[in-house]
């Protein structure tokens, strides 16, 4: 049983007045809002907040806390504290006795950023985490229209999966206590604010970075990874980028453009000013930086209306999913950190941040089954958010505008397992989200060691990639990424990774197969609705002894591609692929059907009426099979699954009607499978090959190999055990 209940959602107040603002109190899920006399800066709220630990006498249910982890950035601007907090259970005695606890433990993580003037708080329950999930998030930020005001956003959720049959009672109790805590919280925040005032603290100066000594600046010279904390320190030379420098109503300062935006024509500059002005007049919330607005204008070729529509949709999406807080709130699971084979690695020859993805070594299917699609999407979004942040850092470091990053994708190890259909669908969804919300952030995509299976994957995904983005792809097969015309044209030799023949040690995780023991249980997958979505992708089939399951696929022209993906749920089967010039008659089990059951009759002779184009593949129970076949001739292709017989008895021809009737009247065992197939039209496949060749001449070797293979048919089956 699963119940979901939103506990609270308090948006920023639109009616803030001078020296009056809303405050929010958060103590392990106990939050209240009140209107009281304000300070001139949000900083006292953070101080009052910290004074409530390790205990808070004003809230009796709060028994105490202890710090689990604490860290500060090198410049002292960011302070992160993670605490374990104990709360007394205020519930009927019977419920406490059944639960067997007198207090519960919450884990709370606070990120105080003095530079950005934000306080981000998140909390989740540790007690009964497998039965009840409580999540709370809160943020203090400076009001975008008046920096003397503080505003906040808060969200909380309660998800009761199961609780000894008392799910409804627990939900009502939680709502009641949460409401009571909200009312009680006003007195608590007043107490600590008054305590600060009595101690003489009513104003806290804004944080400023410590000056960088000359000898420290010299010690930072030389190559370093801009992803380190030191890279976020203000660099020498020009000061921090202003939000906007305007000399008059219709022009931007020339030095500002050259330093932070790059070359703009007068028309482009005018579009930027108009779009920013429109946002200032109509948008409620923080106005994006000029660099961010400019990306959307470039993505729509500076068509003002189209760029405005795209940007507004993206800003709405960011607010809905709290993307602005993602880097502070998202902590990838340990499993992702170990098996997600991607990470940042210095910069390219033009100063763009460099992201390396060893996709061929990454078990995308295992990751999706272990952490779920939503966690993977959130991780991809965090990478894009980090990329934008690194671009800003590199702009300051190198003294010129850098608005995009480079991605190096290593495809060594890519195989048919990566064509697992739910994984491909998830990839297409991620591409769509990134294209819509992070336009013009990819400066260059270097794909190396592309294998023969890559054209099939490219045919599936390339239609969903914007044409402007595809023009930034450079694809190499084999080892032709080495030497002139290869990576050395885009990366300094001292940053080329060691696994690609360079001298630089790369700390990107190597990936590898995710152990099945780490997969989410079916119950957990059902909870996220993931299992239902996957099942909708596949068709189910049963295979009896002597009664195979067959699917007829009509191919109108050669050089089309048939792909398949199936899981063996029970028993062992033999998979084969046949070609026939004649259309098989429907089997007696399913009159009129074109797929399912047995479609052939005993009169067919192997080598005369039909031919085998794929060698039989024995598939064991629990295995997942992916494969493809580039067709040579038009006609009917039959995908066949039949029950596996002991060695020596594997059928080498299609079973006859007698075998089917015998199987139907015998109580023999039954095999079960889920399958999916798809046909990539010849025109689409040839078109994708042409687009691959246009990406870079370095791909011609792979292109020729694939084309020649299709002349006599080729396939790439893979068994995932």
TrEMBL record:
Enumerate the InterPro entries for this protein: CRAL-TRIO_dom (IPR001251), CRAL-TRIO_dom_sf (IPR036865), CRAL/TRIO_N_dom (IPR011074), CRAL/TRIO_N_dom_sf (IPR036273), GOLD_dom (IPR009038), GOLD_dom_sf (IPR036598), PRELI/MSF1_dom (IPR006797), SEC14/CRAL-TRIO_domain (IPR051064)
Q: Which residues form the GOLD domain?
A: 535-679
Q: Where is this region: Disordered?
A: 204-243
- Tell me the SMART domains matching this sequence: CRAL_TRIO_N, SEC14
Q: In terms of domain of life, where is this protein from?
A: Eukaryota
**Domain CRAL-TRIO, first and last residues per copy:** 332-508
Q: Which CDD domains match?
A: SEC14 (cd00170)
Task: Specify the protein name.
Answer: SEC14 like lipid binding 5
């Amino acid at each position: 049983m699963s119940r979901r209940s939103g506990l609270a959602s308090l948006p920023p107040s639109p009616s803030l007045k001078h020296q009056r603002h809303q405050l929010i109190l958060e103590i392990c899920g106990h939050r209240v809002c009140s209107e009281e006399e304000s300070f001139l800066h949000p900083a006292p709220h953070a101080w009052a907040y910290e004074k409530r630990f390790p205990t808070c006498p004003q809230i009796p249910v709060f028994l105490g806390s202890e710090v689990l982890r604490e860290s500060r950035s090198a410049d002292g601007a960011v302070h992160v504290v993670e605490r374990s907090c104990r709360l007394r259970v205020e519930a009927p005695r019977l419920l406490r006795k059944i639960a067997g606890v007198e207090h519960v433990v919450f884990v709370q993580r606070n990120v105080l950023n003095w530079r950005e003037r934000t306080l981000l708080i998140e909390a989740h329950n540790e007690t009964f985490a497998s039965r009840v999930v409580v999540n709370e998030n809160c943020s203090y930020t400076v009001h975008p229209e008046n920096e003397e005001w503080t505003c906040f956003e808060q969200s909380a959720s309660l998800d009761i999966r199961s609780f000894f049959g008392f799910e409804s009672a627990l939900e009502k109790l939680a709502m009641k206590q949460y409401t009571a805590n909200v009312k009680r919280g006003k007195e608590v925040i007043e107490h600590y604010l008054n305590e600060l005032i009595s101690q003489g603290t009513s104003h806290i100066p804004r944080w400023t970075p410590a000056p960088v000594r000359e000898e420290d600046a010299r010690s930072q010279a030389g190559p370093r990874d801009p992803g380190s904390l030191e890279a976020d320190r203000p660099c020498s030379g020009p000061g921090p980028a202003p939000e906007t420098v305007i000399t008059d109503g219709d022009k931007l300062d020339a030095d500002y453009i050259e330093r932070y935006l790059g070359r703009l024509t007068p028309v482009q500059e005018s579009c930027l000013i108009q779009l920013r002005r429109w946002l200032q007049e109509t948008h409620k919330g923080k106005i994006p930086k000029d660099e961010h607005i400019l990306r959307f204008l470039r993505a729509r070729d500076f068509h003002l209306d189209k760029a405005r529509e795209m940007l507004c949709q993206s800003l709405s999406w960011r607010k809905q999913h709290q993307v602005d807080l993602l880097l502070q709130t998202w902590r990838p699971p340990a499993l992702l950190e170990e098996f997600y084979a991607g990470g940042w690695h210095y910069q390219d020859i033009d100063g763009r941040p460099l992201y390396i993805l060893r996709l061929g070594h990454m078990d995308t299917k295992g990751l999706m089954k272990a952490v779920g699609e939503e966690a993977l999407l959130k991780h991809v979004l965090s990478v894009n958010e980090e990329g934008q942040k690194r671009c800003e850092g590199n702009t300051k470091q190198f003294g010129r505008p850098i608005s995009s990053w480079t991605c190096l994708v290593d495809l060594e190890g890519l195989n048919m397992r990566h064509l697992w259909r739910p994984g491909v669908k998830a990839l297409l969804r991620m591409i769509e989200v990134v294209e819509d919300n992070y336009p013009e952030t990819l400066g260059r995509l270097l794909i190396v060691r592309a294998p023969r299976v890559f054209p099939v994957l490219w045919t599936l995904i390339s239609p969903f990639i914007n044409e402007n983005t595809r023009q930034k792809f450079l694809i190499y097969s084999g080892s032709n990424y080495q030497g002139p015309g290869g990576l050395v044209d885009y990366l300094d030799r001292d940053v080329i990774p060691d696994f690609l023949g360079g001298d630089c040690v790369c700390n990107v995780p190597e990936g590898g197969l995710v152990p099945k023991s780490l997969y989410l249980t079916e119950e957990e997958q059902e909870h996220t609705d993931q299992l239902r979505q996957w099942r909708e992708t596949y068709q189910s089939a049963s295979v009896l002894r002597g009664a195979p399951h067959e699917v007829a696929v009509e191919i109108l022209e050669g050089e089309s591609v048939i792909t398949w993906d199936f899981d063996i749920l029970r028993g062992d089967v033999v998979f084969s692929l046949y070609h026939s010039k004649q259309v098989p008659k429907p089997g007696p089990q399913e009159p009129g059907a074109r797929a399912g059951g047995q479609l052939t009759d005993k009169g067919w002779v192997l080598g005369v009426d039909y031919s085998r184009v794929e060698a039989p593949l024995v598939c064991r129970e629990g295995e997942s099979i992916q494969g493809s076949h580039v067709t040579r001739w038009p006609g009917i292709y039959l995908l066949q699954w039949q029950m596996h017989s002991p060695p020596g008895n594997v059928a080498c021809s299609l079973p006859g009607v007698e075998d089917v009737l015998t199987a139907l009247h015998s109580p023999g065992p039954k095999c079960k499978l889920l399958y999916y197939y798809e046909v990539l039209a010849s025109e689409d496949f040839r078109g994708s090959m042409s687009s691959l060749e246009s990406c870079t001449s370095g791909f011609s070797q792979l292109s020729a190999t694939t084309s020649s293979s299709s002349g006599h048919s080729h396939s790439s089956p893979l068994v995932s055990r």
